[in-house]
Design goal:
The structure is a single chain. This protein has three domains: 84 residues, Up-down Bundle (Four Helix Bundle (Hemerythrin (Met), subunit A)); 197 residues, P-loop containing nucleotide triphosphate hydrolases (Rossmann fold, 3-Layer(aba) Sandwich), CATH 3.40.50.300; 123 residues, Signal recognition particle, SRP54 subunit, M-domain (434 Repressor (Amino-terminal Domain), Orthogonal Bundle). It is built from 20 helices and seven strands. The protein has a seven-stranded mixed β-sheet with strand order 2-3-1-4-5-6-7, with helices on both faces. The longest helix has 19 residues. The two termini are 36 Å apart. The structure holds guanosine-5'-diphosphate and magnesium ion.
């Protein structure tokens, strides 16, 4: 997320670091480079123009601020102006006074609507709400089946629909009734998409809007499509009136131009970003944290929040005690690995770290997630006694473990002994 832009901007700041003071000349060339970097990151040209204009005005006005070095001064200004463009503060979801709050999930086909509906239901359920989902895609039975599978996976209810309910409106109305009956406070409506914007799609969505009176109309856009995502968000907003955007596939988008442009172009906030295919890969969008990321300051707050959500504090304290008292077994190690897994893809965690010192070296490191899965599988296939004391693992035990974990005896040989030496070294 934002990696390319972040690298380029840091190069600009580094060049400025050599300058004694901000002058018209060095500011001019820095601005030119910032402009290039933004355009290359696929930021909308109007947004770039506005940003550069704002930065310029501020920089000229702040020439008096001699306490900071030029590069610090420019970083501070760019940071402030980026936040302004991104939307100043986090845009929270709105809820109706009287439940259920209806959220329409709209967007083009393949943008990630169904996945995001599931992610959002999961997120809501973890944040004090009781969501229910319904798919009103009456054209593609596979689309409704997909949401059914999602619902099962995240363990949240779905309104299945009755055979006589043939239109999106029928389905949505019944779903709302059902959510009232079952005491669910949010109804997420996954709508049909098209490959491109067309009148039929818009008329259908307008009808749903009229009948359901949704508090949120969330436009789901694929970040990888860059300015096309921004353009279609804008068009949906003009025709339907969206209340916010969910930008998906940010994990695959190193440029970030869509995220930076959407608010300024549509006037509607980016509320969530999708950062992976799994259902926990959804993050509320914080403009200030995104600006930190873009400027290479990392996103420690998001990291800590994630860690707090996933890591059991009591277990962490217990783990520390065990490490200190040399009481750390393979079973403990396995639990640790599982907790780390819960934090999400390791690469996205590394992306949250500030790009300084040794952490800079870690950027772009490819972590073999399968390696962790294999180690967990091997330990899973051990008995408690074996986990407690790996020294008792002999040839026949090794064969059994290899078979149980779908690995080979060689791998079992290699991995737990490595694990054991890791555990020993971390005790020291
Ligand atoms: N990497 C990644 N893939 C995503 C994300 N969101 C959705 N996808 C994938 O995008 C594809 C289309 O998603 P889907 O929800 O079916 O799109 P829909 O047609 O709009 O309902 C699926 O393969 C999803 O797994 C995301 O945040 N990151
Ligand atoms: Mg879908």
């Amino acid at each position: 997320m934002f990696d390319n832009l972040s690298d380029k901007l840091q190069r600009v700041f580094k060049n400025l670091r050599g300058e004694g003071k901000l002058s018209a000349e060095n500011m001019e060339s820095a601005l030119r480079e910032i402009r290039m970097a933004l355009l290359e990151a696929d930021v909308n040209f109007k947004v770039v123009k506005q940003l550069i204009e704002n930065i310029k005005q501020k920089a000229v006005g702040e020439e008096v601020l001699n306490a900071l070095s030029p590069s610090q001064q420019v970083i501070k200004i760019v940071h402030e102006e980026l936040i302004k463009i991104l939307g100043s503060h986090e845009s929270k979801l709105r809820f109706a006074n009287e439940p259920p709050s209806v959220f329409l999930i709209v967007g083009l086909q393949g943008s990630g609507k169904t996945t995001s509906t599931g992610k959002l239901a999961r997120w809501l359920s973890r944040n004090g709400h009781s969501p229910m989902m319904v798919s009103v895609d009456v054209y593609r039975p596979a689309a409704r089946e997909q949401l059914r599978v999602v619902a099962r996976e995240i363990g949240q209810p779905i309104y299945e629909g009755a055979p006589e309910e043939k239109t999106p409106l029928d389905l949505a109305r019944s779903a709302r009734r059902e959510s009232v009956n079952r005491g669910r406070d949010v109804l997420l409506v996954d709508t049909a998409g098209r490959l491109h914007i067309d009148d039929d799609l818009m008329v259908e969505l307008q009808q749903l809007k009229e009948q359901l009176n949704p508090v949120e109309i969330l436009f789901v856009a694929d970040a990888m499509t860059g300015q096309d995502a921004v353009k279609s968000a804008d068009e949906f907003h003009k025709r339907l009136g969206i209340t916010g955007v969910i930008l998906t596939k940010m994990d695959g988008d190193a440029r970030g131009g869509g995220a930076i442009s959407i608010r300024h172009v549509t006037g509607q906030p980016l509320k969530f970003v999708g950062v992976g295919e799994k259902f926990d890969a959804l993050e509320p969008f914080h403009p200030d944290r995104a600006a930190n990321r873009i400027l290479g300051m990392g996103d420690i707050l998001s990291f800590i929040e994630k860690a707090e959500e996933a890591i059991d504090k009591k277990q962490a304290v217990e783990m520390q005690r065990k490490l200190i008292e040399n009481d750390f077994t393979l079973e403990d190690f396995r639990n640790q690995l599982k907790q780390i897994r819960k934090l999400g893809p390791l690469e996205s965690l590394l992306g949250m770290m500030p790009k300084v010192g040794i952490l800079k070296e870690l950027q772009g490191v490819k972590v073999d997630e399968n390696e962790i899965n294999r180690v967990v599988a091997i330990i899973d296939s051990m008995t408690y006694r074996e986990r407690d004391n790996h020294m008792i693992i002999n040839g026949s035990r090794r064969r059994r473990i290899a078979q149980g974990s779908g690995t080979s005896v060689q791998e079992v040989n290699r991995r737990p002994s490595r694990v054991a030496s890791w555990a020993r070294s971390s005790v020291r």
